[in-house]
């Protein structure tokens, strides 16, 4: 019978498992020199190895990199908060405040995702605006004689310098500008409805978009009329001022006043036009997506632009320059060919028709890409301003999660743009 001090099968050294042997090696000191060999305690021959203290990295020789690498940057490790997860993007844009690249990329995706509706409507609008201009230019070229007819050139110059010649020269341009102004506003409304669905990855046909927008046509025409009044009133005042100067002055003094006032007016009017164009850039989206009336929509656009005027102005101006350059490149070959045909060819109805067709084709191709791009940028800027000023991105994200859960985009997404859904409206 053992008294607890002899060896047993459980404890070969004769000591219990709970009590360490009295003559075992002392525990290792935590201050042992780095790299020194540590003896293994005899009392732990059949147990787990003794825990060694962490070894600091050894000093590397001068000019060499340390053997122990530094830990990776916190941005490369999960859980540090330096890399937020990407925003939801069910459609053409990420559902967060947009940068310039997001707006331009989203506009291109809008055209590519629904080319039949977007480009088809744009082609119809561009054709309506290009035909009067093409006809006016073609008849103007038809009235011009060939270069080898000096007498005809002199007669044509006197005709073009007359009042009827000037009216005929610019009538097509004025009619085309008026039609373009109306058509672009209506097209912006229809494309805005397509864009509102494309944000969630949904497609809508041109017929469906028209059915949704046709009830808003009177309000869109109201916006067109108010914008036209804002732009035309300064011109009327300027013309009346010139008439008064001509009636009350004479000679070189009147000519000097007219030239000086014309230059000053052009400079001021360009600034005036750009200011109000920026301020009311979101009137059409507000009419279509929010169901507002003309006055309320223009007030809504003014409010959305406030606080970020220069950014909106810069993006709209840059867009106009870009699309103008692209449209010029597409239009130039057709316009040049039509002009040369009208000036060098013989004066005939066939020649006039061919020249008008070429000019109209060039104008249609240029405007077919210009109109949807400007409308898309305006619509996405409208969405961006609502995200920044009303936290509308949270509304869109919540709706996108629900859409993904259901697996399809339904028409209720159109109602999300109503201002009652904004968090801070």
From TrEMBL:
Which Pfam family, any one of them, does this sequence belong to?
DUF7847
Record domain DUF7847: where: 98-367
Where in the sequence does UniProt note compositional bias of the Low complexity kind? Answer: 30-49
Superkingdom to which the source organism belongs: Bacteria
Q: Where are the transmembrane segments?
A: 118-140, 174-196, 217-248, 254-275, 309-334, 354-382
Region annotated Disordered sits at 1-85
Establish whether keyword Transmembrane is in the entry.
yes
Q: Which PANTHER family match?
A: EXPRESSED PROTEIN-RELATED, OS08G0107100 PROTEIN-RELATED
What's the protein name? Answer: DUF7847 domain-containing protein
In its UniProt entry, the species of origin is given as: Nonomuraea rubra
């Amino acid at each position: 019978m053992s008294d607890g001090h002899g060896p047993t099968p459980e404890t070969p050294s004769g000591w219990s498992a709970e009590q360490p042997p009295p003559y075992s090696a002392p525990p290792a000191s935590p201050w042992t020199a780095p790299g020194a060999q540590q003896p293994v305690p005899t009392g732990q021959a059949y147990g787990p190895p003794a825990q060694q203290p962490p070894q600091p990295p050894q000093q590397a020789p001068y000019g060499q990199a340390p053997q122990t690498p530094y830990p990776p940057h916190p941005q490369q490790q999960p859980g540090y908060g330096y890399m937020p997860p990407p925003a939801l993007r069910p459609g053409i844009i990420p559902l967060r405040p947009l940068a310039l690249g997001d707006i331009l990329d989203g506009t291109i995706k809008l055209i590519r995702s629904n080319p039949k509706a977007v480009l088809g409507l744009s082609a119809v609008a561009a054709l309506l605006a290009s035909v009067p201009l093409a006809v006016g230019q073609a008849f103007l070229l038809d009235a011009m004689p060939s270069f080898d007819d000096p007498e005809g050139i002199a007669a044509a110059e006197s005709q073009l310098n007359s009042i009827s010649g000037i009216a005929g020269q610019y009538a097509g341009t004025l009619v085309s500008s008026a039609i373009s102004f109306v058509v672009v506003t209506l097209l912006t409304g229809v494309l805005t409805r397509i864009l509102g669905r494309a944000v969630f990855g949904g497609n809508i046909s041109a017929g469906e978009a028209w059915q949704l927008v046709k009830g808003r046509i009177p309000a869109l025409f109201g916006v067109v009329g108010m914008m036209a009044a804002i732009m035309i009133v300064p011109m009327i005042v300027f013309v009346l001022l010139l008439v008064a100067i001509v009636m009350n002055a004479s000679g070189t003094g009147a000519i000097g006043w007219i030239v000086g006032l014309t230059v000053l007016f052009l400079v001021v009017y360009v600034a005036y036009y750009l200011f109000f164009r920026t301020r009311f850039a979101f009137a059409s989206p507000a009419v279509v997506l929010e169901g507002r009336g003309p006055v309320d929509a223009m007030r809504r656009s003014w409010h959305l632009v406030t606080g970020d005027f220069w950014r909106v102005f810069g993006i709209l101006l840059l867009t106009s320059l870009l699309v103008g350059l692209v449209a010029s490149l597409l239009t130039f070959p057709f316009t040049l060919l039509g002009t040369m045909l009208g000036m060098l060819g013989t004066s005939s109805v066939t020649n006039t028709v061919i020249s008008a067709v070429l000019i109209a084709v060039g104008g249609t191709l240029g405007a077919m890409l210009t109109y949807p791009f400007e409308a898309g940028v305006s619509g996405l800027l409208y969405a961006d301003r609502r995200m920044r000023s009303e936290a509308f991105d949270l509304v869109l994200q919540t709706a996108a999660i629900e859409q993904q859960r259901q697996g399809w985009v339904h028409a209720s997404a159109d109602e999300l743009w109503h201002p009652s859904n904004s968090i801070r409206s």
